[in-house]
Design a protein that fits this description.
The chain is an alpha+beta fold and about 220 residues long. Helix content is about 30%, strand content about 20%. Mean pLDDT is about 90; it is low at about 1-25. The protein has helices spanning about 1-20, 30-40, 115-125, 130-145, 170-175, 200-205, and strands spanning about 45-50, 55-60, 60-65, 65-70, 70-75, 80, 95-100, 110, 160, 195, 215. It has a domain at about 25-115 and about 155-215: L,D-transpeptidase catalytic domain-like (Beta Barrel), CATH 2.40.440.
């Protein structure tokens, strides 16, 4: 009996040290990117960091660092430009590519699934005049992985794009002359979209599909 009590007591004494709580630390940016990529191990996904002005391209659970495409050496993470000011703020959250438009007002357009369900819930909590019908339309589109409505009080039509279409050929010529050109992303002046250089956009447009997960971080 004494022996049993001793063993139990010893186990109780050792447990706090052996099973001590490991302190948790916030993940680095690349840690968060890899965590998101690991959630989608058999496909491509994108991660945007607004604060770092970077876009990551991941494939099969890993960060892609470089790729050759269209005569260019594409490096990731690549620079981005985002919306400026409260009225043009780029949304934050988990989205997916809901459309691919080769004929928009911008050089290629990868539509984002804004608003998502979290955006709709936040709008209701904040008192937006979001009707039950509009709420259902947003939720249904996100569940079915289709383009969410853009005619609700939350707006929409956010995406990843290049320069305006009327500048497409001029920017393409400049990129051919300078493969490291920074033009589209030199300042934040979008209306909430994510802008990337043309060589990066053409690579992304060719290599990701509708439904591709996108995480946008602050």
């Amino acid at each position: 009996m004494v022996f049993i009590v001793f063993v139990i007591g010893a186990a109780a004494f050792l447990a706090p040290a052996y099973y001590r709580k490991v302190p948790s630390y916030p993940l680095s940016l690349e840690g968060r990117v890899l965590t998101f990529a690991a959630q989608h191990p058999f496909r491509e996904c994108l991660v945007v960091s607004k604060s770092r002005h970077l876009i990551y391209y991941c494939s099969n659970g890993f960060i892609v660092r470089s790729a050759k495409w269209g005569g260019f050496d594409i490096e990731f993470p690549a620079p981005i430009a985002i919306g400026s000011g409260k009225q043009n703020e780029t949304p934050v959250g988990e989205y997916f590519i809901s459309t691919k438009n080769p004929d928009s007002r911008y050089t290629l357009f990868l539509g984002l699934s804004y608003p998502n369900i979290a955006d709709a819930n936040n709008a209701v909590e904040l008192g937006y005049r979001l009707s039950p019908s509009d709420y259902r339309r947003i939720v249904t589109a996100n569940i079915l992985k289709t383009e969410p409505p853009v005619d609700t009080p939350l707006g929409g039509t956010y995406g990843i794009h290049g320069a305006p279409t009327y500048m497409k050929y001029a920017v393409d010529r400049m990129e051919k002359a300078d493969p490291d050109l920074i033009y589209v992303t030199k300042k934040d002046d979008t209306r909430g979209c994510v802008a990337v250089e043309h060589r990066v956009l053409r690579f992304l447009y060719a290599n990701i599909d509708i439904g591709t997960p996108v995480l946008i971080l602050e």
